[in-house]
């Protein structure tokens, strides 16, 4: 099954200036409010790219000594989105509300009410990119997707080697993704993949894997996905596997893949991009995704240590901590590991 593309709504033209429709001010006030409410797009699950930075114990954010900081912690800086935001992007919704706040008294009142209603139920703070763009933003830890760009590996490796008692755990996330930089980049000096190695994954799962995490994704660019279409090498010829282990990573991954969950609709939006799930059939013919599948399968087995090949793992109860107010169903979804890729052109079919 290929990846289908759902219907995309084209951006609306800029609204008329207040003086362009003079009869608007003569409408009943209740109808004016309805018009303003209709101008606010409903927010959809949005993908946010972020850069992960480790702040060690005894240091402030700027690197200076801070004796009051008695924990290691991570800080996430938001990275810019590509292209203009989609109508359903959280960015676009917030921009619309910001404009309405300064348009007129009625729109200000409607926007103020909307701000309260769309506030994330489980807020997760993303810092501004730098001192030139200090704008902080709260995303929804339950519905939005946080994508860690390349660079998460070293901070997470340091976290994996430090004591958990020194670590200040971040807000739990339901949906986490790692951006795959593609196959053509400089590898580590010892021959290991620059994308994935065990210590980095251990640190990542220390931060988020044992709590509310529901889904771990790897984001693959469409260009890299096309380039990855080639036969999978035989198990003995797979350079990204450990020779001392059973080289059945691909087979184990496909056997555990929840085909019922594969969606052909847009899962997330971010800037000018849409994020879709890649089917198991696509993965099976994409031999260039070796290290991607290795990471996902390794994470799946670490998230569920009782997992054995061919045996369906028992239903898992998730520790919610910051999300304990939410009532979970008795049959909780298993932690899935999937491949997702972004697409900039909503008319392209793969």
Please characterize this protein's 3D structure.
With 350 residues, the chain is of the alpha/beta class. It folds into 2 domains: 27-43 and 87-118, no CATH class; 49-84 and 123-313 and 332-343, no CATH class. Helix content is 26%, strand content 15%. It has helices spanning 29-38, 90-101, 105-118, 153-161, 198-209, 222-227, 249-256, 280-284, 290-303; strands at 47-55, 73-78, 123-126, 137-140, 145-148, 175-179, 215-219, 268-270, 273-277, 336-343. It has an 8-stranded mixed beta sheet with strand order 2-1-5-6-7-10-9-8. The protein has a two-stranded antiparallel sheet with strand order 3-4. Helix 2 (90-101) packs antiparallel against helix 3 (105-118). The longest helix has 14 residues, at 105-118. It is globular and about 75 Å long.
